[in-house]
User: What shape does this take?
Amino acid sequence: MDREHSLTAILPSNDLDASEAFYRRLGFERPDGPADSFDDGYRILSDGKGGHLHLTNAVEGWLVPGQNPFGLYLYAEDVDQLAAKFAGEILGKVDAPEDKPWGMYEFALSDPDGTLVRIGWPTRLRTVTELPAVEEK
Assistant: This one.
């Protein structure tokens, strides 16, 4: 079997159903559909584009609201389309993706357990039609 080398995050969750619903909005689903008869303390999600995320039950008291140290970064070309699914939930002063000084066009969210989730794409790789118009003076 020829597989590309990869790394997958295993993210603790206080509520697997809520976490799975959140990540489903970002395009992540269980590749084999919902589980029926086995222990449901672990979920494997995939976006079908190479992105994978494992969710596991958190140890009680481990994830404290407002003190979650975990973060994820999802590289996605369709930043604006994903941001539209989270209108009113985007963190920061602007409720939309922005070009950042570090060269990314991105926005940030908080998942149900307070995990920081950034979604972005390198500014230099965005197509001309995606870039904001510049006014001539």
